[in-house]
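Subject: sequence -> structure tokens, single chain

Hey, anyone have a minute? Need the predicted structure for the following. Not urgent.
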Amino acid sequence: MRYRSGKLVYVGASNSDEVMSTPEGAVRHGGDVTAPGELEHINIVWHPDIASVAVSSYSAIENGTGSFYRYGVFVRIRNGNQTIEIPAANTSANDKSYTLCFGEILFGEKQGEMEVSALELYSARGSERRVGYVNGMVQMDAGPCGQKKS
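Reply:
Had a minute. Here:
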């Protein structure tokens, strides 16, 4: 996620440089799934210091090739009565892509203003570098390398 100051924070449950929650609690990860069919949950609430959240999934190289396709990944974002689902329609296009950015949640200036943008961007073939931001824009392979799951 990206603060308005430009500071980036990785919220997740797989890498040692990630936190389970941002300091102000605006983005909280519910933990890594451990069994087939389980869903990961991330709670995101509007905060004046946050500019955006890139919603991504990292499938470690040890999960094997084609794991996004095999697992039928998707994101469902609920905001009050509104539900937006972003499926990964092109998951079979690159079976050696290990990071997928479903989309981005852009935070407006006023409380509660949030806009969801579907992106479906994949990391380069064989790259384990995660999503990052370059000049305020989501950029694949711009973040640190993912790490093996323990």
